[in-house]
From TrEMBL, chain A:
Pfam families for the chain: Fer4_11
Matches recorded under InterPro entries: 4Fe4S_Fe-S-bd (IPR017896), 4Fe4S_Fe_S_CS (IPR017900), ET_IronSulfur_Cluster-Binding (IPR050954)
Domain of life the protein comes from: Bacteria
CDD domains reported in the protein's UniProt record: CooF_like
Gene3D superfamilies: 3.30.70.20
PROSITE patterns: 4FE4S_FER_1, 4FE4S_FER_2
Limits of the 4Fe-4S ferredoxin-type domain: 2-31, 80-109, 110-143
SUPFAM superfamilies: 4Fe-4S ferredoxins (SSF54862)
Keywords of the record: 4Fe-4S, Electron transport, Iron, Iron-sulfur, Metal-binding, Repeat, Transport
Protein's organism: Caproicibacter fermentans
PANTHER family linked: ANAEROBIC DIMETHYL SULFOXIDE REDUCTASE CHAIN B-RELATED (PTHR43177:SF5), PROTEIN NRFC (PTHR43177)
Name assigned to this protein: Iron-sulfur protein
TrEMBL record, chain B:
Keywords: FAD, Flavoprotein, Oxidoreductase
Domain NADH-rubredoxin oxidoreductase C-terminal stretches: 314-377
Cofactor names: FAD
Example GO molecular function: phenylglyoxylate dehydrogenase (acylating) activity
Top-level taxon of the source organism: Bacteria
Protein name (record): NADH-dependent phenylglyoxylate dehydrogenase subunit epsilon
Enzyme Commission number(s) of this protein: 1.2.1.58
Start and end residues of each FAD/NAD(P)-binding domain: 2-295
Pfam families named among the record's database cross-references: Pyr_redox_2, Rubredoxin_C
Length: 143, 409
């Protein structure tokens, strides 16, 4: 199954993946218009320290503990994608408590969670973070 | 193979999915005294709050039992397990034979003897969907509600109904709230927040005697009420397992395969006790993720596969009126505490391991801490100074990150 993988040594720490993620979720066509002056809530996040940086997003685990721990039955995995049904999610954050990658976060409204769904939840067609990465630091492939 | 599951909540669903991951054909029968498809017990407070519905509370799609080829006896009660004849007797008189049995009978409310309790007309527990429906049916915007018990169940109930009643008073013998998951400072912070949302607390006190609409307190005061909720605690339903010959302590004793002491009989969920790896002690870990993981483990093993669930830890994610509280593990050890307005954070370290944490108000990426506890990661193999600042994968070595994020084996 294709996944988003990180080539840490190529990451520039430019945060473009975060912007592309947030932009893909808006459904707009002009990034500058869509994000100007807006606090973004991306589902991929850059960690950086000293001269190391890398992007972290949902791993779509083979044995996803968020799915098994969800108290609402709101998280499921189909065709390799761990998906959250926001209409069922009550925002208890048990998934945030158990995700070993720190890849699940509260949605901006606080009433549900959000996570990377490999852009199957928007019109992008393929992971926007990967498509926009200028240095091949994140890739979408089989490994 | 003939599988029978007693209970129809999270552990049962885990068991069904575990069995079907190994055995697509065997006969699975689920027996439950509740007349509903599997629903989320912890969501009953959200149902009364209005943030979910009875349909959305179901933890699997409507076609789950059909797809999984599960025969259900819902609204029927198992009254006896005959481990010799390998059959379960139902209250309807039927006898259901099994080759492998899962006991996932959950827990029931513990109602301590309280003088005059029988005089109270509108009194409720708060564990099941029927409890929630019964409570809801008597609530009015004028209701004065008295909740006995300032634990997880009592306080989620309080939050769930706050917007639809006149007043809520919570009384508890303990001198602080949520003692099962919080330390004193954490309790105080959450209590203050809940109090600001209109819930009144009477702590370090208890009801000496009830009249129909009045509770006389040990301290000498009295509380007038229209509706009483008793949420003092729960007790595992272990009777069927004990009669079947299973070893029972506080809960049904299970091993890492979710097997009981009787061959062919497994158990999972709130009726069980298992080993908490943060203390090494056996205890009832009545939390939903454990129920699923124990149930799934049981299912795989019942079907002849091999699965072990060997790292159970206590953990809770709970929120009250927008304030989120995430906790895990045990709290005996060196404490690293950080506080700032609206935030309380405590890490507990012992034997070079992260043993537990309390995060209130700032909960981002808490699972990275939980994974250190569950995987018993030696803290000298990570950059713990970074982890003290916040949970982050940067604290792991580049080699570990290559495995976690880069797909390296």
């Amino acid at each position: 199954m294709k996944r988003v993988y990180v080539n840490e040594e190529w990451c520039l720490g430019c945060h473009l993946c975060e912007y592309n993620c947030a932009f893909a979720a808006t459904g707009e066509t002009d990034m500058a218009k869509a994000l100007k002056g807006v606090t973004i809530h991306p589902k991929i996040q850059i960690e950086e320290n000293n001269r190391i940086s890398f992007a972290v997003s949902c791993r779509h685990c083979d044995d996803p503990i968020c799915v098994k721990s969800c108290i609402a039955g709101a998280i499921s995995k189909t065709d390799g994608v761990v998906h959250v049904d926001k209409s069922k999610c009550v925002g208890c954050y048990t998934c945030i408590l158990v995700c070993p990658y720190g890849a699940v976060m509260p949605a901006p409204d606080g009433h549900a969670i959000q996570k990377c769904e490999l852009c199957t939840d928007n019109a992008c067609g393929e992971p926007a973070c990967v498509k926009g990465c200028p240095n091949g630091a994140i890739v979408f492939e089989e490994r | 193979m003939n599988y029978v599951i007693l209970g129809n909540s999270t552990a049962a669903v885990g068991c069904i999915e575990g069995i079907r991951s190994v055995d697509p054909q065997g006969t699975i029968t689920v027996i439950s005294d509740e007349p509903y498809a599997a629903y989320s017990r912890p969501l009953i407070s959200y149902l009364l709050y209005g943030s979910t519905t009875e349909e959305k509370m179901r933890i699997r799609p409507d076609d789950f039992y059909e797809k999984m080829k599960v025969k259900t006896f819902l609204g029927k009660k198992a009254v006896r397990v005959d481990s010799g004849r390998k059959a379960v007797a139902l209250d309807s008189g039927e006898s259901i034979p099994f080759d492998r049995l899962l006991i996932a009978t959950g827990s029931r409310p513990f109602v301590p003897p309280m003088q005059g309790l029988d005089k109270v007309g509108k009194k409720f527990s708060f564990l099941t969907l029927n409890d929630a429906k019964a409570l809801e049916s008597v609530l009015t915007s004028e209701s004065r509600v008295l909740i006995v018990g300032a634990g997880l169940i009592g306080l989620k109930c309080a939050e769930g109904i706050r917007g639809r009643v006149g007043s809520i008073t919570v009384v508890d013998l303990a001198d602080r709230i949520l003692p099962s998951i919080l330390d004193e400072a954490g309790s105080e912070m959450v209590k203050k927040h809940i109090g600001q949302n209109g819930i009144k607390f009477l702590l370090g006190d208890s009801v000496a005697e009830f009249e129909e609409n009045r509770a006389h307190l040990k301290s000498g005061g009295a509380v007038d009420f229209d509706v009483l909720v008793v949420a003092v605690g729960v007790r595992p339903n272990t009777e069927l397992a004990a009669e079947a010959g299973c070893e029972v302590g506080r809960g049904v004793a299970i091993d890492e395969a979710s097997a009981t002491s009787v061959p062919g009989i497994y158990a999972a969920g709130d009726c069980c006790e298992c080993r908490d790896i943060t203390t090494g002690q056996r205890r009832v870990l009545a939390i939903l993720p454990n129920a699923y993981l124990q149930g799934e483990t049981a299912g795989v093993n019942m079907a002849g596969g091999e699965k072990s669930f060997a790292n159970a830890v206590p953990m809770n994610a709970i929120g009250f009126f927008g304030l989120h509280v995430l906790t895990a593990g045990s709290y005996d050890g060196e404490e690293i505490v950080e506080t700032k307005p609206g935030v309380y954070k405590k890490l507990i370290v012992k034997d070079h391991l992260l043993k537990g944490f309390i995060l209130i108000g700032e909960i981002a990426r808490a699972g990275i801490y939980t994974s250190l506890i569950r995987e018993q990661t030696p803290l000298d193999t990570v950059d713990f100074e970074l982890l003290k600042q916040k949970p982050q994968l940067m604290a792991f070595t580049a080699e570990r990150r290559a495995v976690k994020l880069g797909g390296a084996k």
